Amino acid sequence: MKHLFKVALSWIKKETGADRSIKSYHRSHHISIEGKPNLDVSAAKVFKGDPNLYNPEDLLLSSLTSCHMMSYLYCCAQNQIEVLSYTDHAEATLVVNPDGSGKITKVNLSPEVVISDSTQIELALSLHRKANELCFIANSCNFPVYHHAKCVIKTIKPNSKTRFY
């Protein structure tokens, strides 16, 4: 089964005077997806973009993090694991070559998952591997995605304590 996703990108030159060098053009543009709010995007600050806007690297990492979470929640549901919350603080490493080319060389996901059943800790942690196998975005990347997962137990009883694993 195939699915088609469409995006429209719009960029218009802003007058910046007579300077036509690579450093003078603005990097901000709009991405439109039918039926959704427009995204204002720029280059990363380090590449002379607007630091207040999303950049392609932000969006790639966000897509990967979001897709992994959805794949993970799917795996947990298949295994009757009740996930109470899921957070992640992901990092992508970008290497730029002397010729100006570059690429993301690795991503570190650091999900912290809160579940309610302490007997499911090992299974909950192991499902990150299965989620990575299912993740559409991870399967589309040519760099390694590492998982540094934590599982937290939160019992719903009076005077209960949260335990980290």
From TrEMBL:
<dbReference type="InterPro" id="IPR015946">
    <property type="entry name" value="KH_dom-like_a/b"/>
</dbReference>
<dbReference type="Pfam" id="PF02566">
    <property type="entry name" value="OsmC"/>
</dbReference>
<dbReference type="InterPro" id="IPR003718">
    <property type="entry name" value="OsmC/Ohr_fam"/>
</dbReference>
<dbReference type="InterPro" id="IPR036102">
    <property type="entry name" value="OsmC/Ohrsf"/>
</dbReference>
<dbReference type="InterPro" id="IPR052707">
    <property type="entry name" value="OsmC_Ohr_Peroxiredoxin"/>
</dbReference>
<protein>
    <submittedName>
        <fullName>Peroxiredoxin</fullName>
    </submittedName>
</protein>
